[in-house]
Specification:
This is Protection of telomeres protein 1. The chain is built from 16 helices and 42 strands. The protein has 824 residues and is an alpha+beta fold. The structure holds one DNA strand of 12 nucleotides.
Length: 824
DNA sequence: GATTAGGTTTTG
């Protein structure tokens, strides 16, 4: 900014007399002017707000010879520019005519065009730099009677600008071509410059200490109190504010506007506000501000050093370096005042019972309670020091996820929003970031049932009420995702998404838009058919048989003990059974030891075992049999008689195929409740119903591979297959659905069931996956979403047909590749 | 085209 301060009192003396001879008469008297130095704009820099604060635009037609023009401005387009008349001694005079631009206000050109007389250096400058068609803003003028009104039919007044208090601001004409709308600099004397700004009006901002009743002003200030817009009894919404500035005056401001988006976007005390065209009014002995015609408002964050980003819904608004400076100056000033509130925004973790506070949070779910109350479930990523009250609402009334009513981690706050706020709350979408103003932390003493002691059982649960009314600024508003406070909040919330990176995305994404906004899903479909995704509720309602693609979360699963999910089933008779436990198997082995007769036709190796003192077993003979000692595949198959389960396992770890047998003269297999074959750590079972055991001869030499299938076939055993069977309860935003995971469980977990039965690591992998899909102690918001292919089919159960759903063609993704355990 | 509200705690 460039400003020239000239001596305070200027006496119009000799050269003023010369003007009496000029075309325009200036009145001829010697006057004292208010101190008002010349201010010229340089390089678009802002003017001194202290000075501009005193300026007030006046339409040309409203000027009268008696108008007090102190602090007034006039704006108009140059329609005539006269010659520069030299008065000697470097004194000049120039006459020009400007016309009011707003023709609606002044249809009569007689009253909208006015003569302007410029004197001295300003006249010379004007001559050099102002052209016809330019739009000017004049300040520091005086009004006199126009001596030429009869001749030129212009305004009865003229404007006189001279010397130190006069300012001329030049704007580009709006009729100029786009090429010439680029701002151009014009050099004024004394090395000063005027910037031509493209169709941008200059605003002058008034200090709150300089407000007189009944004027329209522009204001820059800091917000020290505010209410969110509320519906009036009239046609508009009303925002009630109290603002202050460097003058330390606090001024009330009432904003009426029928459009919510045109109300000031104030998020917290300390925000900076710029008001255009508010009128001053005396109310209860104090000046207050009220919206007037053409009102507009822009707000800014009040934090020193943060980016100066105007908050406005207006598509065109003036914002330049001047505004930047004004905001920064107010921020600096406010930082040293104690404006900032007694009840700041506090995290849930610092909330005290009975306190009123502002909460910045994310909306998880909402549900109407009754006509004057809505429940909001929110979190801010901090854990409240007091147990949080849970408010029960029918799950199907929630928008968001009904299971959010679980409050496992004491992170979800229940907020009851009453009366006038219900309407605002109704518009909110889960995932939105919010600020709730003047929230009331209401302690609810709840005594735990079943304990007589009254003292120790009083637990204070905190519920939160946004009471009706707007006292103390009560209300709520959505915060934009890019606001500094939301950015801070997101950082906190993100620390909770370690388990599942998609968590926040999920809540920012309505479930129905999954396909348009891809979300990291914990499972993926492997099917090659294409069907449109449906909700679980839609899947339930459709006919059979069907294949569905759904997105859902895992609500619960069974069995919780994963080894219980291991099953044996017969491909022939379809019978599914549990894998016998070791006690059962051991019992079969012990029973079989009684049948230790000879085995005709087999090569034998006998091992005599003495009675072990530790156990109850008598002394025994353990016999290894083979079809032949040396030849072919037969040597790979060992029949073991008289061993315990433990011994069989031990021997199986050293020999490839061990078949436990017994004999009452003829060798035969054990009861098929026990494995008929041990291969390493794997145990194979046969179907009691479908096997036709026959140990008559060695396995055929045509067998290329000696494995469970060929051994089973050679022994007449119908091999049972291992499988994993789980019941998964899925849930989406519509309903929950019980499904089975069976046919495609192995690809789902990336393990083979037989491994899961024999191998600790494989079991752990299944366990890990289930814990990822359904973390122990988690609530629904923490659980990942699954992309699933479901098939629906009908089964008959107790004479009744029932629809079953099975997860098919689906595999879990492995976000963290399985770590190979280090050697120990 | 004027009017609305004019900071100041529900009582759930």
């Amino acid at each position: 900014m460039f400003s020239v301060n000239l001596p305070g009192k200027i006496k119009f003396t000799c050269w003023l007399c010369l003007l009496l001879h000029a075309e325009e008469c200036l009145g001829g008297e010697t006057r004292n002017l208010e101190v008002m130095p010349i201010h010229l704009v340089k390089n678009g820099a802002s003017l001194d707000p202290q000075v501009l604060a005193q300026l007030q635009p006046v339409p040309i037609p409203l000027l009268t010879p008696t108008s007090d023009c102190t602090g007034k401005t006039v704006k108009g387009r140059v329609i005539h520019k006269g010659p520069l008349v030299s008065m000697g001694d470097d004194s000049y005079v120039l006459k020009t005519v400007i016309q009011e631009e707003d023709t609606q206000q002044s249809p009569s050109s007689e009253h909208s065009s006015i003569n302007v007389v410029l004197l001295g250096a300003l006249a010379k400058s004007y001559f050099e730099h102002v052209s016809q068609g330019d739009v000017l803003l004049l300040a520091g003028f005086t009004v006199g009677k126009s001596p030429t009104v009869n001749k030129d039919k212009f305004h009865v007044c003229n404007l006189q600008l001279c010397g130190d208090d006069a300012s001329v601001y030049v704007f580009l004409s709006s009729t100029l071509s786009p090429r010439s709308s680029i701002p151009s600099k014009r050099t004024f004397p004394h090395g000063t410059e005027v910037t031509k700004a493209a169709k941008v009006a200059k605003y002058t901002y008034v200090s709150l200490s300089n407000l007189k009743p009944g004027i329209v002003v522009n204001i820059y200030a800091v917000v020290c109190f505010f209410k969110q817009p509320f519906q009036t009894k009239g046609t508009d919404y009303c925002s009630t504010l109290k603002i202050t500035d460097q003058s330390n005056n606090k001024v009330g401001c009432t904003i009426f506007c029928d459009k919510l988006e045109e109300h000031p976007k104030i998020f917290k005390i300390g925000d900076i506000i710029r008001l255009h065209r508010v009128k001053t009014q005396l109310f209860n002995g104090a000046i207050s501000l009220l919206t007037s015609h053409g009102f507009s408002v822009v707000t800014f964050d009040g934090t020193v050093g943060s980016p100066v980003v105007p908050r406005t819904s207006s598509r065109s608004f003036k914002f330049d370096e001047e505004d930047q400076h004004a905001v920064e100056a107010l921020r600096m000033w406010a930082a040293n005042q104690s404006l900032v509130p007694t009840e700041p925004s506090v995290p849930l973790s610092s909330v005290q019972p009975k306190a009123y506070f502002d909460l910045t949070c994310q909306l998880l779910a909402k549900a109407p309670v009754d006509s004057s109350c809505t429940l909001l479930k929110v979190w801010d990523g901090t854990k409240c020091a007091y147990p949080l009250l849970n408010v029960f609402v029918e799950p199907n009334t929630f928008e968001g996820s009904p299971t959010l009513s679980q409050n496992v981690e004491n992170l979800t706050a229940n907020i009851l929003v009453y009366d006038n706020h219900v309407q605002v709350a109704r518009e909110l979408k889960p995932g939105t970031y919010l600020r709730l103003y003047n929230l009331h932390a209401v302690p609810v003493a709840s005594r735990l049932p079943g304990n007589g002691s009254e003292q120790s059982d009083e637990t204070e649960h905190l519920g939160f009420h946004l009471h009706g009314g707007t006292s103390y600024g009560r209300g709520l508003r959505v915060l934009p995702d890019d606001s500094p406070d939301v950015k801070d909040l997101k950082k906190i919330l993100e620390t909770f998404s370690d388990m599942n990176d998609s968590l926040l995305d999920v809540w920012n994404t309505p479930p129905e838009s999954f396909d348009s906004a891809p979300v990291e899903l914990a499972t993926e479909r492997t099917c090659d058919h294409t069907v449109d995704p449906v909700t679980l509720a839609e899947a339930k309602s459709k006919g059979l048989p069907q294949v569905f693609h759904v997105k859902a979360q895992l609500k619960s699963y069974q069995p919780q003990k994963l080894y219980q999910s291991l099953k044996l089933f017969c491909r022939k008779c379809k019978f599914i059974q549990d894998v016998p436990d070791d006690d059962t198997v051991q019992g079969v082995f012990l029973e079989a030891q009684k049948d230790d007769g000879p085995c005709e036709g087999y090569w034998s190796l006998e091992v005599h075992l003495p009675r072990e003192p530790r156990c109850e077993l008598p002394s025994r003979t353990l016999t290894l049999h083979m079809f032949s000692q040396l030849e072919g595949k037969a040597k790979e198959l060992i029949f073991l008689k008289g061993a315990t389960l433990e011994e069989t396992c031990l021997i199986a770890s050293a020999y490839r195929n061990i078949v436990p047998v017994r004999s009452q003269g003829t060798m035969t297999l054990l009861d098929l409740s026990a494995p008929f074959l041990f291969r390493g750590t794997r145990r194979y079972y046969g179907c009691k119903q479908c096997s036709k055991v026959n140990l008559k001869g060695p396995p055929g030499e045509e067998i290329e591979v000696m494995d469970e299938n060929s051994v089973a076939e050679a022994l007449g055993v119908q091999l049972l297959q291992y499988g994993l069977l789980m019941k998964l309860e899925l849930q989406d935003e519509t309903t929950s659905l019980e499904t089975l995971l069976w046919r495609d469980a192995e690809p789902f977990f990336h393990v083979s069931a037989v491994d899961a039965a024999a191998d600790q690591q494989a079991q752990e992998r299944v366990q890990e996956i289930m814990e990822r899909l359904c973390p122990p102690g988690s609530n629904m918001v923490e659980r990942p979403w699954l992309d699933l292919c479901l098939s629906a089919y009908s089964v008959e159960e107790d004479g009744q047909r029932r629809t079953c759903y099975q997860i098919c063609h689906t595999a879990t993704r492995c976000p963290n590749p399985h770590n190979t355990p280090s050697d120990t």
